[in-house]
Amino acid sequence: MDSTTKRRLLFSFITNWISKLANTIIQLIQVPVFLHFWSVPLYGEWMIVNSIPAYLSFSNIGFGSVAGNEMTMMVAREDREGALRVFQSCWWLIAIICSATILLLSGALYALPASRMLRLTNLGESDTKWIIFYLGVAVLLGQLEQLLQSAYRCIGRYSYGSILKSTFMLIAFGCMMIPVALGGGPRVTALVFAGANVFFTVLLCFLVKRDIPWMEFGWKHASVAEIRKLVRPAVAFMGFPIGNALNLQGTLLAVGYALGPTDVVIFGTARTVSRVALQMVQMVNSTFEPEMTIAFGAHNIALTRTLHRRAVQLALIVAVLIVAAMMLFGPWFLSHWSGGHVPPSRALLSILLLVVVFYALWSTSSTLLTSTNQHQKLAAYYIVATSITCILCYLFARWFGLLAAAGSLLISEAIMNIYVLPACLGIAQDTWPAFLASMGHYPESLRPAALLTRFRRPKPQLEG
Predict the structure, then answer these.
(1) Residues 208 and 243 reside in one and the same domain
(2) Helix (H, G, I), strand (E, B) or coil at 275
(3) What would the pLDDT profile of 70-104 be if each residue is shown by its tens digit?
(4) What pTM, to 2 d.p., does this model score?
C-alpha cells in the first residue's frame, strides 16, 4: 500500500467522521429548536409528514451507487470515455425517473386527502400536500447529488465530495431553521429547505464541470446498453434496505407478537445501545470502499487483497474495543439513558454485542463485493438470512424468552459469514491461512513493544 493510498484512506476516514458528526449535530439541534418555536402536536405532525417523502429515495433503485462503482473502476483502467458513458446514461435515467416520480406524486397529492388520511389536526389539507411535495423534491434531488459525488469518487477525490455533501447538508439545515426561528410555519420551512437543495444541486453541477472538465453534461455518450448492463446490480442494491428492515423492524415485531410491548422496549433499547459499535464499523467500510473499487478496477489484485485484509482487521479491532467498553458501561448507560424505566440486562446486552462482532466480520468483508458491483448473491443471501431470523426470533421468544430471541440474531450473522468470507477471499485471490495470519499482523510502530517504549520514561542518570 503506497503513501498516496494511505493518505486517501486517512482523509476518507476523517471526512466520514465529519459526515457522522454533521448528522449528529442536526439530530441534536433540530428537536430542541422545533419544540421551542412550535408546539409539540405541530412538531409531531411535521415528523409524520416528513416521513412520507423518505420513501421516494428508493425511486432510482440503486443506479447511483452502481454507477459510482462502475465509473471508478473504469477511470482506474484509464477508460474515461467509458466512465463518461456511464455518467451520462445514468444521469438521464435518474432524471427521467425523478421527473416521472414528481408527476406521480403530484397526481396522488391532487387526488388524495392527505391530511385526513394521515389523521392530522394541526396541518390543513393544502399545507400537508405542499409540504410533502417540497420535501419530495428535496429527496429526489438527492438521487442526482449521489451521482455527482460519484464523479469525484471516480477520480480519487472521494473525501472532497464527502466534505461538499456534509457542508451543503449543514447549510441547508441552517436555512430550514431560519423560518422556524422567525415564526414561519411548516409549509414555509419545507419550501426553504427544498429551495436550498435545488440551489446546492445546481452548484454541485457547476463544481463538477469546473473540477472535472472531461465529465460533460449532455446525452452524446448516453447508451441504453450501458443502462441495461447496470440493471441487475442496481436492482440487487434494493435487497439491502429490505434486509435491514427485516433485521431491525421485523425482529422487533416478532418480539412484540411473542412477548408484548414491554419486552419490545427492553429488547429495542438494549439493541440501540449495542449498535453504537456498528456506526464505527460502517465508517471503516465507507473509508475502504472507494480504494477497493480503484484497486480492483486497475486489476491490482495485490492491493485489493491488502485493502480487504486491513479493512476487516480494523473493523474487528474497533468492534472488539467498543464491545468491551459497552460491556463495562453499557448497563449503567442504559439505565440512566432510559431514566430507570428500562431494566439493564447484562446477559441480553452481551448477546447483542456478540452479534455486533460477527456483523463486523462479514459486513466489512462484503464491502469488496458491493464496491465492485458483485453483490447480487449477497443481497439475496441477506434477505433470506434476515427472513429466517425474523421467523426464529418469534419462535425462540415464544418458547424460551427474550434472551433466546436475541440469540436468534446470531443465525443471520452466521449465514452471512459462511457466504461472504469465501466469496471475498476468492475475489482477492486470498487463502484462509494467509487471511487469518494477516489478522494478527501489525506494523512495527503499532506493536505493543513499540508502543510501550514510547510511553516508558527514561530513568534518571546518576552522576558519578
Answers:
(1) no
(2) coil
(3) 999 999 898 999 999 999 998 998 888 888 989 99
(4) 0.80
